[in-house]
Amino acid sequence: MRDNFLWGGAIAAHQVEGAWNVGGKGVSIADVMTAGTKDKARKITDGILPSEYYPNHDGIDFYGHYKEDVKLFAEMGFKCLRTSIAWTRIFPNGDEVEPNEEGLKFYDELFDELLRYGIEPVITLAHFEMPYHLVKEYGGWRNRRLIDFFKRFAITVMERYKDKVKYWLTFNEINNQRILDNPIYSWTNSGIIYTDNETKLETMYQAVHYQFVASAWVVKEGKKINPDFQIGCVLAATPNYPLTSDPADILLAQKEDDQQLFFTDVHVRGHYPKRFVKEWENKGYHLDMTEEDLKILSEGTVDYIGITYYLSNTVSVRPEAKCLNDVLLGNDTLVENPYVQATEWGWSIDPIGLRYYLNLLNNRYELPIFIVENGFGYADTFENGHVYDKERIEYLQQHIAQMKTAIVEDGVDVIGYTVWGCIDPISFTTGEMKKRYGFIYVDRDNQGNGTLKRYKKDSFEWYQQVIKTNGSNI
Ligand code: BGP
User: Fold this and answer.
1) Atom of ligand 1 nearest to the CA of 427
2) CB atoms < 10 A from the CB of 197, how many?
3) pLDDT (tens digit, 9 = 90+) per residue, 103-115?
4) Per DSSP, what are the bridge partners of residue 373?
5) Is the CB of 83 under 6 A from ligand 1?
6) Pick from 417, 423, 460: which is nearest to 6 by CA?
């Protein structure tokens, strides 16, 4: 393991900060998403109804507790913290010309606090929290004007924090919007609420094209602001295994991987893969794509690949295979993998899949990889001020072991590893507090009740050792 390996944790503004209407902040798409559970989908309501609970509103009040929380991260020995800048703190509606100074000051103070402890901020520019005004007035990323709004936001924060932040990520899990059956992904990735009479896939490719252009432009301009910037993309990395050796299953798995890697192909190579250009032609899609756009794509390729890794998928054309029919992942060819266990939320637990995918990405792109999310969502039991989370420790041990093997034996260049939800956040897919990820427990329940007091779980001390020994002692 390299000496400067970036061990740390990851959170996102909308899942922890709260203070949704404080300090001049505007309303984000995440702020209008209601509570859900694993059996009840989240919805967005146009406005904020008193009878509904909007968990992202309050988060865990990281906004008010960040000093206490950063101190705990420092105690664990974090080398970095990945978080996002809420676009709505800087440009409350998204289309203003002047930024909100109070929002900028908040992140100045947060980054200063981190740097005081030697913790490097790793910053995502777009983590599911775009201004709701841009959704309502412009139709989100279906509108080309979003490129300019995003550019203004990105340049404002890159200029402001150029001496405090080196690692940037443009769009979180950009490939998730390919999941068209579960609307939460298109709402949060691209601010799109589909109508019944549109070809969703065509709209999706159009929105993604604008995001690619914006991302490439930000990489290019970011380097002018500070040539030392390292700017990456984020792929939700989910291996697709064929259930059987039936060639039709193999082909299906390959196609699924291709769909997923389409996003990284463009970010890394700076041009569209031929197979997709063919697909658009075959389907008769007409995408708004100029010569200038294509030039920017080729000039703004990423420095590293950020990945989030939680689970693997298994696919099959065989009707007798046990279909998962997973609305979350939105794919009716997904089947149960008899070789892996799953969490209470149905996410397969597959540490070897992490090594497999690191190798796949390394073979394909030969770029540094940053594991910017990996973690275990679990309904922790809180007893007498204590959480014995041995299942979480086991999950992380197994994944870190596979990452180490990929680095040491397979020669994959992994530059860092941040555990998702290092302090219990609001779950993104379900909107629950019950699905917890942290080393630090936060006293808050699914209805938003609780003291917000922080408690160290057993995994806190365990991760402290991992970092202290640079991963030797897991
Ligand atoms: C990723 C997101 C995170 C996070 C994580 C866990 O897709 O980038 O924001 O929430 O998944 O998901 P969940 O919170 O639904 O368990």
Assistant:
1) 14
2) 5
3) 999 999 999 999 9
4) 308
5) no
6) 417
Q: At 306, which helix (H) or strand (E)?
A: strand 304-308
With the most atoms of ligand 1 within 8 angstroms of its CB, the residue from 188, 308, 327, 380 to mutate is 308
**Whether residue 427 has its Cβ less than 6 Å from ligand 1:** yes
Which residue from 182, 373, 436 has its CB within 8 A of the most atoms of ligand 1, so it is best to mutate? 373
Angle at 437 between CA 436 and CA 438, to 5 degrees: 105
What does each C-alpha distance from 429 to 41, 183, 185, 335, 412 come to in angstroms?
8, 11, 9, 20, 30
Kind plus residue range of the DSSP H or E element containing 169: strand 167-171
Q: Could you confirm whether 102 is annotated as catalytic?
A: no
Of 159, 373, 391, 394, the active-site residue reads 373
- Assign 186 to helix, strand or coil: helix
Q: Quick check: CB of 12 below 6 Å from ligand 1?
A: yes
Give the domain 6-246+256-313+344-468 fold. TIM Barrel (3.20.20)
420 lines ligand 1 (CB under 6 A): yes
Token match 């160290």: residue? 456
Other beta carbons less than 10 A from residue 469's beta carbon: 12
Q: Distance between CA atoms of 36 and 55, rounded to whole angstroms?
A: 9
Summarised one tens digit per residue, pLDDT across range 386-407 is 999 999 999 999 999 999 999 9
The pTM assigned to this predicted structure is 0.97
Burial 354-392 (b: 16+ CB within 10 A, else e): bbbbbeebbeebebbbbbbbbbbbbebeeeeeebebeeb
Give the ligand 1 atom nearest the CA of 176. Answer: 7
Q: Which two tokens stand for residue 229?
A: 């910037």
**Measured distance CA(444)–CA(436) in Å, rounded:** 11
Percent pLDDT > 70 in the chain is 97
CB-CB contact of 419 with 439 (8 Å): yes
Indicate the Cα dihedral angle 164, 166, 167, 170, nearest 10°.
Answer: 80
ipTM above 0.95, yes or no: yes
**Does residue 435's CB lie within 6 angstroms of at least one atom of ligand 1?**
yes
- Through-space distance between the first and last CA atoms of the chain, rounded to whole angstroms: 13
Cβ of 132 closer than 6 Å to ligand 1, yes or no, is no
Nearest to 429 by CA among 130, 185, 240, 192: 185
